[in-house]
Amino acid sequence: SDPGQPQSEAHLSINCIIMDINDNQPTFVNKSFTFEVEENRPEGWLVGKAEAFDIDANKDSNGALNYSFTSASDPDVFQKFSIDSSSGKIYTRRTLDFEDRRS
């Protein structure tokens, strides 16, 4: 959001998938996650965390999850955000600027 009057905001949809190899599919903790980031936050800013679980998690290596953005995400996602493949934490790749979104 924007401290000016009237306030401005921009929205960006991110699609994330979780992968694992076995017979039990991983499941996201929530059907969707919403995170807010104020503009001008620095590169590497923690935006939020996509969380999932797998019933195999404590049994063997089949419970290891791998998070990534899907190609269905807005193209800006790959330029502006990164996701840690093992934790699901989403970070800014660069300082975000509302005016960049309008161009």
Task: Report what the structure shows.
The strands form three sheets. A three-stranded antiparallel beta sheet has the order 3-7-6. The protein has a two-stranded antiparallel ribbon with strand order 1-5. The model has no long low-confidence stretch (mean pLDDT 76). It is built from two helices and seven strands, in the order βββββαββα. The chain has helices spanning 76-80, 98-102, and strands at residues 16-19, 27-28, 46-49, 52-53, 66-69, 81-83, 89-92. It is mainly β and 103 residues long. A hairpin with a 5-residue loop joins strand 6 and strand 7. The protein starts with 15 loop residues before the first strand and ends with a helix.
Give a short synopsis of this structure:
This protein is mainly β and 103 residues long. It is built from two helices and seven strands.
